[in-house]
Amino acid sequence: MLSGLTHLAVALGLGLGLSPAAGGPGGEPPSASGASASGASASGASASGESASGESASGESASGESPSTGSPGASKSAAPKSAAPKSTAPKNTAPKSAASQVPDLAPDQALEVVLECGLRLLVARDRTLPVASVVLAVESGPEDDPEEYPGLVHALAYYLLQGNRELRPGESIDTVHAGGGVASMAIGLSQVRYESIIPASRLEEVLWIESQRLRFPIIRDTIWKKTIGWAAGDSRRPGILPPAALAAVHRTPGLGHDSRRPGSSMASLSDGALASQLRTRFNYARATLVVVAPNEPREVLAMVQPLFADLPGTQRKVMRRLPGARAVSADSQTPPAAVDPAPAEDPAAAGGTPEVGDAASPADTAAPDPAADEGSGAPATSDAPEPATPGAAGDDATSPDPAETPAEPAVVEPDPEVVPVGPHKLPIYAWSVPGDPASNAWATAFCRTLNRQRRGRGEPKALRVSCAIDSDPRRSAMLIQVVGAEEPLVTLRERIARLVSGRDRGLLRAQAKSLASELRFVAHRPLGLARQLAITADDDVGQTPVARPIEELTGVTPLGDVASLEEVFPALLHLGEAVVLVRPETEGKGKKIKTDQRPGDGPGNGKKIPGEGSGT
Q1: 102 neighbors 544 (Cβ within 8 angstroms)
Q2: Cα 349 from Cα 328, distance rounded (Å)
Q3: pTM (2 decimals)?
Q4: Is residue 480 one of the residues assigned to a domain?
């Protein structure tokens, strides 16, 4: 029976998109091939449309990360279970009262605590299968590369697989494989993850490995040069945007280089400089350890605390991956104009039926009737309620004469910043998505809804609004193209306003509800939940264990209230916070020519970003 469950655990790991990674003394390096699962990165319509990297938001979509996969010739043998050097683990020096400090957890809660060494620990219980998932996520990525050493973090992530004072080369992988599990490594733009899914009986061994992974690296020039070669052979990031465009969207210059093409200068790093870079960029004070297992969280905490008790006390280094600020302050911007239904009229006098408002009814989630869009007599969606006529019935008789009331100056939202680095001929409106599950989820729901909107009255039949997510756990971007509109910027303002407060708000609510169901489904599997928890917001949690609702951590709870969008991702509602990527015009042999293209100009003909495209 146990053997059958073990095989089931392996099958489960493979089904989650993990690729086996193997390595050992003299073996070939783990090389990233393909795209790895993105740790609950809620992705919109991407290069493959509705594929796994499209609008799945399932926590396993292609995210610009790559899993390390083992070479067929690499050794998969490992020392027997008894050979694991458990004797080197420190004795339990945790206070005896530590267990009593752990609060009672409900089944839908996770335990969160920061250890004295600065490591953040998240523990959730999953009893669906006798398997456990362990993820060590380090908040370091290619955007942290020094300018003189491009590709450094990518190479350092591989270097840590080559062993240290306690682990022989490839032992971390071999131990997982020997127990019937699967291991992988994922490298995003700002986060590196080491992932394992194993039988629950091997949990203690894998926890010991993760407690040693970032310690005592062996610094050898020969190993380092070989590792650089392995990193250089890694596959390119499969995202939509090139590095220069990523840097512009996130306003982060560190993203503007090809992080998987190590510079030649790295080979000249001295042993001391290499050791210093490893200590700075890969340490437990900027890491999160996630454990999802059948064990009680209190029991897991008792396993983990002694393994890190010998490390010196360190303040946690919280890495907040936020987009760089634009020169225009967000305080000077105004929310999009409300697109409320027209004032109620007599249906007979209007020649049709009154438009449905924001009531929670089945009609609220239904798309508008195409006949109404084509002028069948039903009221059309307006940009704002029609102004009242002075002196009309229902006006306040005591209201002052508008001519005597000084008009307040209107606050105009600034246009998006135009950057000539786009890879497509059509302009792309791009937003930087904050690196937390709630923001990623809302960006995905918003993107799906834009792709499903119907044409408004007066919009041409050729008009399309296409939305996609360039997915990454910490550095996602939402991309929108408007095709077939004379004034794309005006069209996009109207579409966003319809979602925020108009008749399409029900459509947004329906997509958010559907996405929440998908995220819950992923959270029912150990590795899917572990990946979601690995990219949760790093709040100021202290050394006292606290209970946190899992759905709040993974971004599901905010999806239940459309009004929370303005709190979770307010920049999405402001076109002034977007960046417009336009393709630089060239003449002759690649010589750039000046262009006065603005966001409101016609799109012309050219390559379009992948996405459903709305308007049909």
Answers
A1: no
A2: 47
A3: 0.71
A4: yes
